[in-house]
Amino acid sequence: MEEKLFIYYTNDFHSNFEQWPRVAGFLEEAKSNRRERGEPYWIFDIGDHVDRVHPISEASMGKANIQLMSQLGYDLVTIGNNEGITLSHDDLYHLYDQADFDVVCSNLHSLDEQEPDWLKQNKIIETDSGIKIGVIGLTAPFNDYYDLLNWHVSPQYEALDKYVKQLKQSADIIILLSHLGISEDQEIARRYADIDLIIGGHTHHLLRTGENINQTLITAAGKHSYFIGEVMLTWDHELHKLVKKEAYATNISEVPKDLVTEQILYQMQVKADQQLGKPIVHLEEPIEVKWFQDTKILKELTNTLKEWTMADCAMLNAGLLLDELPAGDITYGDVHRICPHPINPVVVELRGNELLEVIRAAFTKDFMELKLKGFGFRGEVLGRMMFSSIQVETAFRDNGEEYVVDAVFDGGIPFDAERTYTVATADTFTFGRLLPEIARSETKHYFLPEFLRDLLAATLRDKFAME
Fold it and tell me: Would I find Nucleotide-binding among this entry's keywords (predicted)?
């Protein structure tokens, strides 16, 4: 006799609450269909459901996300880096206290040796017919951040060696919930033939019908839950093995919104607005924000960053601030609105010649106009770079493009090409190839759990408040 098992999943939702009523509409219908047919089903999330870019998540420190997943009947989730490194240790420790689902993350550990009650290293699910499904969860090892928050993520292969072997003895099917990215998922499939299914995320890849490697089915559903993932596993009870594995990602853009969920979100938004609505400063005049011009607010924010980190100099891009601030009372909600990015301050070490290369690159048209998506940045374009303790002389070419003629420290002090300087900036630039010299720096000191918007709030209070 053959039996079909159904798994529905989301990954990398990133608090895209405008889409959540469609997610609810799709999953409620799917659950109803499975119940009518008497077929076993589960709902999983693969991490990065929380993103403090949204005021609901910001005000609740992610607990609203957990409430929504519980209400929709999720069974099992793993955590992503947005849950793991954008919350304080205490906020993550208590994030899932009220969850009506299990949390599996096999490689996350608290450094104070006091693990939260909700954290499970693995989980075995048993169907009514006796099929045992072993689940492992893995999250990406951003330990430069995790260690500062008193957590640690152990190597994924260390966890896999332990739990795949363990589950092979007691489970019929092994599933990995992987917030590691597509390349890691493919490598894991090559190394561990005993893993039947890898449901992935982190790199926002979309596999419409899955991918098979070494008899392991890999799947993922993009980002922001514009697609919902569905897996169908066919188990043969006589042969005592899986005989078929199918994966699909369904576009839910035309799915009707669930009206109850819309009402819940409305109430959550009202509550968030109230929580974030306390005034932090009163402005006599509006504050201008411009992405391609120097402004007072960005200059003062960059100065605050330098002072707060005690670096030799600091630099921030104007695209971090999304909108101007009006005259009158300014709330933390206003600060969150114009600086929603989950971006932390960082100090890197650069030699003088490397610092000069960074400054030159930051003044190129390609850099300033780059429409960056990712690395924590939630804005439109990177914009013009502002510096603290550095004076930059620029000129214009015949085609109108600006370029750097010279750069010196305040007081006309030239850079020493071989001397090492500490440079404070946004942690965005420590990833990828935006500014290679910063990404390659061997010394990076991240500041957590503060975001740049926390420094912006301090700047407004200290530099712009009415006397």
Answer: yes
For the segment 300-359, what is each residue's pLDDT rounded down to a tens digit? 999 999 999 999 999 999 999 999 999 999 999 999 999 999 999 999 999 999 999 999
Using CA atoms, how far apart are residues 347 and 447, in angstroms rounded to an integer?
8
Among residues 363, 427, 357, which one has the least CA distance to residue 395?
363
- Residues 195, 96: Cα–Cα separation, whole Å: 27
Would the pLDDT of 467 be above 60?
no
Question: What is the arrangement of strands in the sheet containing 385-388, beginning at the earlier edge strand?
Answer: 385-388, 313-317, 420-426, 345-351, 444-446
Which pTM value belongs to this model?
A: 0.93
pLDDT at position 466 is 66
What are 87-141's pLDDT values in tens digits?
999 999 999 999 999 999 999 999 988 999 999 999 999 999 999 999 999 999 9
Helix pair angle (296-309, 452-459), 10° resolution: 110
Find tokens 């066919």 and name the residue: 234
Protein fold of 278-464: 5'-nucleotidase;  domain 2 (3.90.780)
Select the CATH number that applies to the domain covering 2-271 from these four: 3.60.21.10, 3.40.190.10, 3.90.105.10, 2.40.110.10.
3.60.21.10
First to last CA, the chain: 79
- Is the backbone peptide bond immediately before 449 cis, with ω within 30 degrees of 0? yes
Contacts of 261 (CB under 8 A, 6+ apart): 20, 21, 24, 25, 68, 71, 72
* 3-state SS assignment for residue 269: helix
Annotated domain spans of the chain: 2-271, 278-464
